[in-house]
Amino acid sequence: MKSGLMCGAAFLLGAAPVFAQTAPSHFNATKIAGHIETLSSDAFEGRGPATPAEDKTIAYVSAKMAEAGLEPAGDMKNGARGWTQDVPLLRAETVGSPTITLNEGGSTKTLTQGEEIAVRAPLDGTKAIDIRNVPLVFVGYGVTAPEKKWDDFKGVDVKGKLIVVLVNDPDFETGAGDFGGKAMTYYGRWTYKYEEAARRGAIGTLIVHESKPASYEWATVKNSNTNVMFDIVRENPKASHAPVEAWIQRDLAVQLFRASGLDFDGAKKAAQSRAFKPMPLNATLSIYLKAQSGRIVSHNIAGRVKGTTHADETVVYSAHWDHLGVGAPDAKGDKIYNGALDNASGTAALIEMGRAFASGPKPQRSVLFLAVTAEEKGLLGSEYYATHPLFPLATTVGAINMDGIQMLGLAKNFSISGSAKLGLLDDLIAQGAKVGRTFTPESHPEAGGFFRSDHFPMAKQGVPAISFKGGNDLVDGGTAKGEALAADYTKNRYHQPADEWVPGTDLSGAVQDLDLLYTLGEKLANSREWPQWSADSEFRAARDKTAAARK
User: Fold this and answer.
1) Which of 293, 310, 343 is at the close of a domain?
2) Which among 204, 406, 527, 534 has most CB atoms closer than 10 A?
């Protein structure tokens, strides 16, 4: 769920209420619960890529796909497809505790990894960070957007410096402006800010964490950035990664600005204008961090129902199987990040979606069920598939991603991650209307959900793609209850060891959602429809380039 990545549902504790089904379902809540309970158990150790838990996960998911009636759809080996697709990755892990020293206004302070600062193991191809007294400069939101006549750098050379940047977009605070108001653009994502620093030759980036614009608490930042890091294998990693990629707490940023005679809130306000100019800070930072790094191979898992008349055309359902593995202990001493909602639940849904298609009338088009790796490390498994597809993207009809499923009971509405204008969403809305459910645009577009789930790499390649989200307008409790429970999950369980399976969790809403997604995929798989992006979509041009392959 991220790049990480944030789910839109939460756990409802206690006895599950009973809801009447309006029509026979294709799905069984007990089967779904069994998969979640197994995959999120301590035995699977948080499903970290390139750990023994990956082997367990692959064995379980592929066995259940076979049991459901799917055929292997992975890499060709010895003349036949297997269940997995090799995904080569760079793996980097911090060795011991880094030494981090801040010098501000002549006074020296030692920073603690995971407390005031979270420094990632280097992904630029080196095996250590060793910087001494590197100057800091505040560059606002760190955005260069010529099409918006916006440049936060104003010609300032940041080579040899650490840039301090704000998370999200310049108009997040005001809700209006050049960057879509509250809805985050890619310029607001932390991945963009790291990339821009590398393009400009900076030593690195310090992103100031604030819970609202980031859409998650510091615990999520710490847990996601101080453990094992991964990246796709790049020909020139230094072009995408500066040596230092880190976050700092807001309180530390306030202190830094004060030592430089600046007011943090005032500087943030100034950064919301295109007239903003970089502000040098009266501070330097030294970091020594040793890392182990090397190439490993993780795996996507793929099963398929082969089409009867148009087998070369593919509808894709996806979900990421990975989570954070074993990491720093929480207050209770728990070190296993079980990832029940995120995303054992989506993997469970994927297996059962495969069963529904395999046990019913065979579709005209093929349907692929893709469990991808390393989502939590930056959508890496889906990025690899999107650039090394098992089946041609030109004849991929659409992609439906499941990152977390509904665990709050029945809902009157449904949503998707982020905002998108495309025919695939129109189809989903139409199918929902048939069963009396309404589409609600994402309630928190400032969270940048469109860029944080595994449909995004497919969209970048032009494939019509959405990531489904369960509704927040609950039959029992309405939107007030739905929003409160989702916020509680984000604060207390998201990317924390507390994301565990709770027996008695209500999965009636999950069954409801999966029936909806099944009817959407079935319609696509038995039609000649080719969903398209809107004419003004940034993904339309990539899709149009392959138009000749679609009949």
Assistant:
1) 293
2) 406
Q: Coil, helix or strand for 295?
A: strand
The H or E element that residue 319 is part of is strand 310-320
- For the stretch 96-120, pLDDT in tens is 999 999 999 889 999 999 999 999 9
Q: How far is the first Cα of the chain from the last one, in angstroms, to the nearest whole number?
A: 34
Residue 279 lies in a domain: yes
Measured at the CA of 37, the angle between CA 9 and CA 12, to 5 degrees, comes to 35
The string of DSSP codes covering 244-279 is EEEEEEHHHHHHHHHHTT--HHHHHHHTTSTT---E
Element (H, E) at 525: helix 508-525
As given in the structure block, the two tokens for residue 148 are 């918006």
Q: Span 168-180, mean pLDDT?
A: 90
Claim to verify: residue 383 and residue 252 sit in the same structural domain: no
Query: Can you say whether the dihedral through the CA atoms of 160, 166, 167, 172 is positive or negative?
Result: negative
Number of separate domains in the chain: 2
Tens digits of residue pLDDT in 25-49: 999 999 999 999 999 999 999 999 9
Contact in structure between 225 and 490 (CB atoms under 8 Å): no
SS3 of 495, please?
coil
- The phi and psi torsions of 288 (rounded to 5 degrees) equal -125, 120
- Return the CATH number at 139: 3.50.30.30
Closest to 215 measured CA to CA, from 189, 196, 187, 197:
189
Q: What are phi and psi of 521, to 5 degrees?
A: -65, -40
Cα dihedral 271, 276, 281, 285 sign: positive
Same-domain status, 305 and 394: yes
Alpha-helical segments (H) within 113-210: 190-199
Q: Dihedrals φ, ψ of 431, to 5°?
A: -65, -40
What CATH number is given to the structural domain containing 319?
3.40.630.10
Cα–Cα distance for residue pair 84/75, rounded to 1 Å? 6
Query: For the chain, how many residues are written?
Result: 551
Q: How confident is the model at residue 302 (pLDDT cuts 50, 70, 90)?
A: very high
Q: 498-516, pLDDT tens digit by residue?
A: 999 999 999 999 999 999 9
Do residue 84 and residue 102 come from a single domain?
Answer: no
Residue ranges making up the domain that contains 480: 33-90+295-549
Q: What residues pair up with 284 in beta bridges, in sequence order?
A: 103, 135
pTM above 0.90, yes or no: no
What's the CA gap between 426 and 529, in Å, rounded?
A: 12
